[in-house]
Amino acid sequence: MSDSAVGPLELSTDEMRALGHQVVDLLVDHFAGIHDEPVGRKAARQELQELLGGRIPEEPSDPGELFRSLKEQLFTNILHIDHPRFFAFVPSPNNFVSVMADALAAGFNVFTGTWFAGSAPAQVELTVIEWLRQICGLPEGAGGLLVSGGSMANLTGLAVARHEQLGDDLDGAVAYISDQCHSSVARALRVLGLPGDRVRFVGATDGYRMSTDALRQQIAADRSAGLHPFCVVANAGSTNTGAVDRLREIADLCRAEDMWLHIDGAYGAPAILTDRGRALLDGLELADSLSLDPHKWLFQSLEAGCLLVRDRSLLLRTFQVMPEYLRDTHGISDEINFGNYGVQLTRSFRALKLWLSFRTFGLANFRKAIERGIEIAEIAERELRASADWEVVTSAALAVVTFRYIAPGLAPEDIDRLQGRIVEAMLADGYAIASSTVLNARPVLRFCTINPRTSDDEIRETIRRMGEMGRSLAGG
Ligand SMILES: Cc1ncc(COP(=O)(O)O)c(C=O)c1O
Fold first, then answer.
1. Which terminus of the chain has a lower count of CB atoms within 10 Å, N or C?
2. How confident is the model at residue 328, as a pLDDT?
3. 9 C-alpha to center of ligand 1: Å?
């Protein structure tokens, strides 16, 4: 650090500018060169301990040097979830505007818990929430807030369900969730105090969609046993296969049974912006609460999740607490205090990145980008079906396709093992990454192709390499 620094934790103006330019160059190089880079790597604990561990330093270091070392030491030792060949789990193909917006939100250290301290940011969040409400087709009067991600959105939505349906009294309460629900749903119910034996995992009929008949029967059985069914969680794009539950049918059942419908559209809901997605997501607008993750298919940097609630006043009813030290922030009814809409009081300015991204690119480009993701999965499916190496297990749905490597000579258990070993081989290769999951008690491979930057050649080359890996691992 130079002598011109004025305080113990400050840099000179020149140093700040130099560091800022260095960071922007690093990011622009990352965005511009990503197709030529490996998808990333997973390093061993020992290696990273040596590289990144050590004692807390008493003396300062040159920040330029420190930041220069990051690419080598840190950013090469991650899997790039924004990479066009990252097909595992649910990618986060963020856009550059959202990155810059996050830099500004951090730089101005914007507080968005109260209108008193952050009136303009609260208005931006209101605007973004209103846009998302309209996109998802919820009625006027619906509202919500931005949270860290889908897990927090599910927790927040289910906390409202518990408060409204049960008055927070869990005695005899039962929740019904698709057996394809993301793990964050069961975790949220556990955190909210619902005993595990009062979470019913409802199985699928066709295509991994929750069986409405089974759901109806289970609710009836529980009512007969004197229990209190209060909530159903349905999927609008399951993580495993992209399946969308019969939302309209389930909503009708919930209305008839006076139960809350929470829809988890964390990754799938934004597909409603496309014609095909809208058809698949019929009934999304009937949710009492809906999770969606802008850091997935709305191309934002981590972290950006969203919860929408059909009647936004219920958020306040669930979460508002007024301590004496926040008395200056209350009293004017049209001033929205997002700190009272959820768990967090101190909240970062997540809305800025979405607001700027929508305004920079326009909704039409978001539509195209989402449509492209749907198309890539279809290209993958065609490629897989054209090869004798592969069996397609579930067809491309909302940019997810699942498949298995088939090796006719091998025992079924060996073929099962092979699927996970192909993922390991991909990790070692570094060109692309898929993940595996289990469907119908069988391991399968899975692509999630929501990154619009993936080229046709990249998905084809990924499948070609995976075929080679399969053959080599099968000993062929
Ligand atoms: C359907 C679904 N719900 C919830 C989540 C959890 O979201 P997050 O990881 O943002 O907390 C995911 C993550 O992939 C998801 O796919």
1. C
2. 80
3. 38
